[in-house]
Recover the amino acids of this structure.
């Protein structure tokens, strides 16, 4: 479904992605695994055009990522994203944060008051219910716990009705128990809503538990690809070992 072909990216002199090629299959939760600085976030950001590639091509359902800003904006509606730090507007209500996921579908000429339709509100309530936060919809987002804030971000992403959901270290700021709850929710929702989930994770164990495919990234290169059923933690740790050998 997502086809990454020979993608390279430098920041200044640093080559962050070096001819990366891989395919991410539809409805197959896929984890990008690798040490800090491997280029995981950059690759994820290339997939939705937040970072422009220097060379190579990315296609989603055989459609190439457009370069033109207007077309890119349109394309991006189908790609939701959630982040380690949740990226919410903390001073506004939970439901307003969720509605923000719908902004790509409203006209910039509409005032904020008339921007959202009743259908938007209904959808927001439906997704808030799905992530278990309907009762908290009128509270300020910043007053909620980290796990709850990530649930808001998930509901906001769902408002886009995305085909693909990119999650960049979605549980890195959460305690271990909450991390499991959030990953359970993410994998369950992506299955129910027919969304293809691509995550970056720090933990080998969580990657094994929650994904079907694992792509090992190190120093901007794909080191290996693993099917979760046919690998184990020891093998996956080698993705990190190689980095240390080079670094030493
Ligand atoms: P990871 O997510 O695997 O930790 P990143 O993709 O965030 O890795 O970063 C890979 C490398 O690219 C790092 O060395 C980082 O400093 C660099 N990098 C990432 N984003 C930028 C940016 N916007 N400007 C300059 N350097 C960047
Ligand atoms: Mg990262």
């Amino acid at each position: 479904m997502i086809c990454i072909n020979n993608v390279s990216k430098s920041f200044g002199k640093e080559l962050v992605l070096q001819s990366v090629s891989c395919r991410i299959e539809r409805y197959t939760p896929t984890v990008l695994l690798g040490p800090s600085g491997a280029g995981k976030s950059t690759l994820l950001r290339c997939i939705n055009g937040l970072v422009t590639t220097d060379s190579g091509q990315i296609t989603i359902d055989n459609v190439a990522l457009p370069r033109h800003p207007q077309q890119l904006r349109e394309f991006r509606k189908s790609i939701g994203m959630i982040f380690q730090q949740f990226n919410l507007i903390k001073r506004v209500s939970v439901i307003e944060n969720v509605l923000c996921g719908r902004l790509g579908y409203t006209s910039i000429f509409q005032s904020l008051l008339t921007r959202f339709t009743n259908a938007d509100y209904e959808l927001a309530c439906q997704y808030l219910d799905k992530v278990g936060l309907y009762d908290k919809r009128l509270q300020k987002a910043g007053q909620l716990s980290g796990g709850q804030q990530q649930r808001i971000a998930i509901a906001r992403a769902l408002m886009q009705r995305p085909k693909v959901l990119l999650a960049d270290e979605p549980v890195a700021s959460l305690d271990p128990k909450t991390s499991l709850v959030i990953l359970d929710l993410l994998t369950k929702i992506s299955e129910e809503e027919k969304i293809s989930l691509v995550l970056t994770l720090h933990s080998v164990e969580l990657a094994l538990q929650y994904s079907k495919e694992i792509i090992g990234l190190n120093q901007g290169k794909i080191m290996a690809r693993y099917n979760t059923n046919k690998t184990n933690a020891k093998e996956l740790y080698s993705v990190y070992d190689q980095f240390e050998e080079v670094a030493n």
About this structure: The two ends are 38 Å apart (CA to CA).
